[in-house]
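To: structure subgroup
Subject: Chain for Friday's discussion

All,

I'm putting the inputs and outputs inline so they're searchable in the archive.
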Amino acid sequence: MIALVLSIKFGNPQITNTVKTQILYFVICLLMMTSSLQGQIKIGDNPQTLDPASVLELESNSRVLVITRMTTTQMENTSPLRGAMVYNTDTQCIHFFTGTIWTNLCDRPDEQTFTTDAIVNFSPTMIITENGSNFNFEVGEIRGENIVDTSINGDVDIQQETITNRLLAENSVSFDKLADGMSSGELLQWNGTEWVLVDETGIIVTEIDGVIGNEVTGPADGTLTVTGLGDAGSPLLLDVSPGGITNLELAPDAVTSDKIQDGQVTTADIADNAITNIKMADNAIDTAELADNAVTTAKITDANVTLAKLANGTTDNNIIQWNAATTQWEEAAPAAEVDGIVGNEVLNATTGGSLTRSGAGSAADPFTLDVADDGIDTAELADNAVTTAKITDANVTLAK
C-alpha cells in the first residue's frame, strides 16, 4: 500500500488563480492515481501521522471542512450516491441522500422532543414508542372533546366500519352526534340485528295473554293489595293494604312528631325514663300531644314540672284541687265563708288549753291565736327537744 501525504496551503496571496488551478488539477490527478493504488491521503497538520484505517484525514486547529453548498432546488436536481452530503443554504442545515430522497439532519426524530400529552389527558390521544433511533406514532384514544364539531366528514374522512366500540371513549357519543330522524316522534328500536327508526304508533308490545298489566300481583307480605281486572274497563290498581305498613317498612327516624296524630302516644308507648329534658324542645309538648293519663310520675324527672309548665287557669284566685270522686286534679274556687267573716270559725282554744284566742273575729278586730301561759307541758314537748341552747342561763333549779 502506498501512502500519499500532502500538505497544501493556499494562504499566499502572491499565487495567481492560474497557479491555484494548476495545483488543484495536480491534486485531483494524484487522488485518482492513489485511488487505483489504494493509497491514503492526509491534508492539514501533522501530515506524517496517518491512521492505517483512514482513506482521507483532515487535521487542523484553525481551519474547517466546508462541504458542497447548494440551494434546495440545486440539491434536488442532483441524484448522487447514497450517503452523499450537502449543506443546504435555504434550510441552513446539512442534508444527506438516502438513495431515494434528501433528508434534513435537523429534522431527525432523535433530535426532537415528543410528548404524548393530549389536550384532555385522561388517556393519551397520541402514543409514541421508541425503538433505537426509530419512532412509532399510533392513535390512542379519541374522545368527543378532542374532535372539533363538524370537522369529520363521514363520507370522505372515515373508512366504512373503522370506528368500533373499542375506539370510542365512554360518554363520547352525545345526542348531537346522532344522525337526524325522518319525522317527529320517531323512536330508536332494536330489531334483533340493528337499531332502526320506527314511528311511535307502530311499536308492538307483546303480552302473554294480550291483556296489559294483569301480571301485576301484590307482594307476598301483604303490604300492597291489587284490585281490578287488568283490562281497559277495569284497570289494575295498587294500594297500601290496611295495616300493611309495619315496623319492617319504616326506616329509622321516619316517624316524626308531624306524623303522629294528636293524643295517640300513651303511657304504654313510652319506655320508663325514655324522654328526658334533652330530647324535648322547650314548650314542645302541650295538651294536644298528650293522651289522657299518659304522663305518670315515672315519666317525669324530679323537679321538672315548674309553674311555667302548668296550663293557665280560667278564673282569678282559683285553686287546683284533687277530686277523689273523679280521681283527677281539677280547677276549683276556694271554699266559701258561712257568715262572710274570715276566721271566726276558729275555736277559742285547743282541747288541752295549749292555745288561746283573742279578738272579735272581724276585719277591724281579727282573731289572734297565741300560746297560753303554761300551755306547753310535757305532752307538747318531744323527747330531746330542750337543748342547752333553749335554756336560759341559771334557770335550772333544784325544783326542775
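Points worth raising on Friday:
The longest strand covers residues 126-131.
The helical segments are 17-36, 72-76.

D.
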